[in-house]
Amino acid sequence: MARSRRDVIAQVVADYMQQTSLHGYRYLTEPGRHWFERLLWLVVHALATGGVVWQVNTMYHEYRTQVPITTVQSTHYHVSLVPFPAVAICDINKIRKSRVQALAAKLIREHGLASVTQEELTGLLRFLGRLYDHSREGEEYIMRLEELFITYNVTLDYRGVMQMLGTQCDELLLACRWAGKAKPCTELFETRKTMEGYCCTFNYVRPTDNFDTSYDETGEVVAEDAQRSLADGPMMGLSVLVNSNISDYFYPLLPTTGVKLLVFNPNDYPDTASGGLIEKLVMAQEEVFFTLSSVTTKPTAEVVGLSKERRGCLFNNEKILFSNFYSYSDCLMDCRVQSMRNLCGCLPFYSPVKGKEEDTRVCEIGDLRCLNKHTEMWQTLRPRQDLPGLELEMTQSLECNECFPACGDTVYHVETTSMPLQQVLMDHSNFLRGFKVENHSAFHIYFGSTSQSLMNKSVRMAWPDLLSNVGGICGVFVGFSAMSVIEFLYFFTLRVFVALSSRRRMSLGRAAVAGSVGFQGFTPAPLTGHKPAAAARAGPPAPRYPKELLSAGVVLTPTTAPADGGHFSWGRYSFHSQPQSHQAQQHGPRRY
């Protein structure tokens, strides 16, 4: 009798259990095994499979929730591959007395301020310096100056006026040297906006001070390359001789004389809150040596696939605020600028703007109350996580959740050594010879070594690592591998299909044989070759199939069927049968 479909599939399952490469599965169906043995092996396989599922799930969860790790790739990253930092020289004195006196005389002359003398107006104009620190100290004088401006309809161009009142670069910088060569300071430095106001900047590669993208005549984005130092040591760095005109001090931000040095990334806006700005003081009559070191971080391709919340950083193409790169400092400054515009309706004269400067109102004397009220908030960045005990501070800080550090960046570190500036040493220095020690100061900033640090930001577990770990766990517990998958697909697709097709062909072959010899529902003779008695009485003898053919379980469809029904052929097997009209002796199968 033909096997049913269920029997065929059961036989394939049994064959798979006996022949699979998975460990121990043959003991579940191996003939002769006691039922207790089978139960024991079933429990073992259930525990092993549960262990695999638990371990794989744990590892996949770690893979999905992992954060980048930073490792040291090299401590011999050559200094020529590292951009030299941008350097801004800012005079501590923000307003020169001679310039304020000239401005007071001009306002009295042009606007007819008859109710105030030039000396009194000069004293009041000193409080324009409050636009730097937003302090309300001396508020009565600030209110008096505001009333004068309103009464006499005085309108100031605050950007231009504040730049004019400060020290100009050609007055502040006397001598400059870069990479061992003396150069005019005007070739190395330019006046740019910083958080300290207008300063003299070196190697600051941003085309403009605003958030606009600059294009050249061909429509390409303007992007300058930062200067690089080819070697270490003071001779291969930047050296500057500074003139601090102490006699002209009128509004110093600090109770000292000299200049403030800002060291920052050449692509970043010099902003203290971003954490990438280093501030150093160079006092008058001092010579200071600043030794640089750097740590450059580069991300790998695997970090790109992580969400920004998990990797905690942004790439250049994800949030572009300026030119063709992303800067954490730019993002924080943009967040602060939006808050200033929303809360006070204006921006300080030194802040970068979006669009045209003419379309943005500059904060005036009358806006100092609002600026003073929110200054502390703008200087405090709110953390992303709630911190216990700091609920009040959380509400009085700047929220910039869209800002993340850059994934690839260079961080600079500065070590300082200072000494008094002595005339005898200046006379023996090729760089300082010819200058007299008065209110001067000098500084040298340079890399202390040709070998810098290179860090690699990567993931602890990449996709190949996950695959390898999962394969190792499956191999240890159940002996599973990629070939096991192919083996499973082979048995339960191709083997099942072949077995079911053979069963169908056998059924069709038997039906065809029965119809061709004139019997309805005949049964082949037993494997011994003896025909049943009932079949002998009913009619002509039934054909005897070869044992070899019957044991194979396959009956082929006849390929030759003469009209007289005397000869049939199944491949290499054939036999003769006689019609019902006359009794003939059956001839056995003849082999060709």
UniProtKB/TrEMBL annotation:
<keyword id="KW-0812">Transmembrane</keyword>
<dbReference type="Pfam" id="PF00858">
    <property type="entry name" value="ASC"/>
</dbReference>
<keyword id="KW-0472">Membrane</keyword>
<keyword id="KW-1133">Transmembrane helix</keyword>
<keyword id="KW-0894">Sodium channel</keyword>
<dbReference type="GO" id="GO:0015280">
    <property type="term" value="F:ligand-gated sodium channel activity"/>
</dbReference>
<keyword id="KW-0813">Transport</keyword>
<keyword id="KW-0739">Sodium transport</keyword>
<protein>
    <submittedName>
        <fullName>Sodium channel protein Nach-like isoform X2</fullName>
    </submittedName>
</protein>
<dbReference type="GO" id="GO:0005886">
    <property type="term" value="C:plasma membrane"/>
</dbReference>
<keyword id="KW-0915">Sodium</keyword>
<dbReference type="InterPro" id="IPR001873">
    <property type="entry name" value="ENaC"/>
</dbReference>
<feature type="transmembrane region" description="Helical">
    <location>
        <begin position="476"/>
        <end position="500"/>
    </location>
</feature>
<keyword id="KW-0407">Ion channel</keyword>
<keyword id="KW-0406">Ion transport</keyword>
<comment type="similarity">
    <text>Belongs to the amiloride-sensitive sodium channel (TC 1.A.6) family.</text>
</comment>
